[in-house]
Amino acid sequence: MIHLEPTVGTVLAALWRHKRLVVLSILVMFALAVAAYLTTTPTYEASTSLLVGQDRSDAAAGGLLPTEVLNSQVRIADSDSVVRAAIEHVGLDRLPEAEPGPLSGLGGKLRGMVKQWLRPEPAGGASAGASISAMDLAVERVRRSMSARAEPNTSVLTIAFHHESPAVAAEMTNALAEAFIDQQNSLLRRPGLVEFLRLQTQRFDDEVRRASMELQDFMHREGMYSGEEQRSLLLGRASQLDADLSRTRSSLAQAEGQKHALSRQLALLNPVARSPFALGFVESLDADDIMGREADAEAALPLRDDDTPPLLMIKVFQEAMTAYRILDSEVAGLRDLATQQAKEVEDVDRELARVTSIQGEYERLRRAVDLATFNAETFAKRTVAEQIESDLRDARLSNVRVIQPATPPRQAASPKGVLYAAFGLAFGLVLGVALALAREFYDINRRDGAQGT
């Protein structure tokens, strides 16, 4: 009995001996692949690209969306609501249920016969699936024919749809993109938010008016216009008054010293002081000065009746008396000024103590006004921004922008002739090799049987 060794040489020899069978298998499978390619209905795929999820600030900064957000946009794009809206836009009649193609002719008929035998239609002609609407069936078919994917490392969403008609494929793709934009705007829309923000703004405006009136009443009642600034001004005024009072008292002490010196000088003019003519002037001096002058006069020599002060002494006496009267007026004025300044210092100190005691209440009322004003401004800005966003959404000005709209494709996405030819040649070669080896084994076994008999 002869055994065929499974070596490369024996295999190649077997293939060469049965080369006609191998070539025939390749030709048959290639012909079947070409027939399948020619009888398969071509489908066309159209796609559109969308830049999604970026608002104005993100777009200006050039930022990318997180993967989670972009994946959420993908789920929105292939949701039933988006697909239904796109079907309604294109028209349900333009998306008929696919009829069995040539490739599934025999298999399709066999499957139909088995299905009819297992589940015969009722007498009324209604099938078991009649409860499913045509729209639901169309949604399922469209979802199987479409795809939505996020491009890696970008904020771009690609929506694709394949159909037997290039025009329908492009129109349906654009309809899906438009329905996606509308759905996103609908999800972002917050009904009643603008009105709520307006009510809050009005409430805080009323709070600002109430707090402002309360602050104004307090300011008028207490005579306070600015807590810290008013206190600073009072401290400055008190410091200035203290300095002025010190200078006044210094000037007063100096004037009193000069006055005392003049009184001593007058006391030394004994001949004049004891003259009846000058006595009237001397008597108008202060009591202390008079007592000092009398003590000096008693120590002087008494004047005789015929003693008459010389004219020079009288001149000196007159000048001294004039200077004394001037100093006396200056001293009186300085005393009044010192008294007035001391009173002003006391008034400023009392006002400063009063301002300090009510400053806490003033600051509380002022903070209430500032807080209410800040809240009112915040809600006013938010109201304006939300109103603008709402108007943009109502005008269908979305932050989703179409980068490239879908156009009718010129080439079919499937079937691919090269792939069909490659598969036909590959399967034909494999089948030819298998048939050649099987024929070789058959011939060997037949020869062994003939030799045995």
Give the gist of this structure.
By secondary structure, the chain is mainly α. The chain contains 15 helices and four strands.
What does this 3D model show about the protein?
- By secondary structure, the chain is mainly alpha-helical.
- It folds into 2 domains: 28-121 and 129-188 and 401-452, no CATH class; 208-387.
- It has 15 helices and 4 strands.
- Strands 2-3-1-4 form a 4-stranded antiparallel beta sheet.
- Strand 2 (146-150) and strand 3 form a beta hairpin.
- Helix 1 (8-17) crosses helix 15, helix 2 packs antiparallel against helix 15 and helix 10 packs parallel to helix 13.
- The longest helix is centred in the last third of the chain and has 84 residues, at 311-394.
- The protein is rod-shaped and about 195 Å long.
